[in-house]
Design brief:
alpha/beta; binds 3-methylbut-3-enyl trihydrogen diphosphate; globular; binds magnesium ion; Undecaprenyl pyrophosphate synthetase
Length: about 250
């Protein structure tokens, strides 16, 4: 319904056969959004969580198969404890209400990152929501929580070293597919499109290995202000790119 309205209003030209299979998002700018309104940073995160649900629903309706959203990096622990605590409670709340709020979207939820360092409560909720949405066949939503690209590569290297040491893997057999299959994203294709909001133009340790041939799209819009129309802009830009993957 929303889709039809939007497309009518904007005369949106999107080629449904050329949608990205996998969209990665760095939803940045929650703090600045709040600051501009004289509100605490936590209010920006709360608003950002609402945007997240709205955009996930929209992408599910569009028929996008995979999304990976960066919600907490391994470096975000450097923030004041009060902000980290606020973010963790918000994430817990998000996961608790996910099925109800994304109802009808048929979304399958997975969490990637260093889950073992999170609170028991959060770990339990992650297991619950993953199990509960496992049978869903629509959009696969990967939530990158306590995720770091370098950390992910280090843990893949450790797994490989262990397999070699135990004689289960021959070092000569190590190739790109061996590394890929030891990453958190082993069952997911690499992202086709990366969106970062708030005007920052860096990867901030997100999906370092997987972004090798991803198309980047940036906007100055702060994440809490990001709309379905902004998503369409990103998709239109993606559809006009010429991806060469090193060829001609
Ligand atoms: C992104 O918003 C959300 C997280 C990193 C959790 P920020 O909190 O980074 O917002 P800014 O960049 O300070 O505006
Ligand atoms: C990246 O944003 C992490 C998330 C959105 C979760 P940051 O706001 O933490 O990144 P930097 O510090 O500006 O690079
Ligand atoms: Mg930021």
């Amino acid at each position: 319904m929303i889709l039809r309205k939007l497309f009518k209003r904007k005369k949106v030209q999107l080629d449904k056969s050329k949608l990205p299979l996998h969209i990665a998002i760095i939803p940045d700018g929650n703090g600045r959004w709040a600051k501009r309104r004289g509100m605490p940073r936590s209010a920006g995160h709360r608003e950002g969580a609402k945007t997240l649900k709205k955009i996930v629903k929209f992408c599910a309706q569009l028929g996008i198969k995979y999304m990976t959203i960066y919600v907490f990096s391994t470096e975000n622990w450097k923030r004041p404890k009060s902000e980290v605590d606020d973010l963790m409670s918000l994430l817990l709340e998000f996961l608790r209400n996910a099925e109800a709020e994304l109802e009808g979207s048929n979304v399958r939820i997975k969490v990637i990152g260093r889950i073992e360092d999170l609170s028991d409560e959060l770990q339990k909720e992650i297991r619950r929501v993953e199990k509960h949405t496992d049978g869903n066949t629509g959009l696969c939503l990967n939530i990158a929580l306590n995720y770091g690209g370098r950390d992910e590569i280090v843990s893949a290297v450790k797994k490989i070293a262990k397999e070699v040491a135990e004689g289960r893997l021959n070092p000569d057999e190590i190739d790109e597919s061996v590394v890929s299959s030891r990453l958190y994203t082993c069952k997911i294709p690499d992202p086709d499109l990366l969106i970062r909001t708030s005007g920052e133009k860096r990867s901030s340790n997100f999906l370092l290995w997987q972004l090798a041939y991803t198309e980047f799209w940036y906007t100055n819009v702060l994440w809490p202000d990001f709309t379905e129309n902004n998503m369409i802009e990103a998709l239109q830009s993606f559809q006009n790119r010429n991806r060469r993957f090193g060829g001609i």
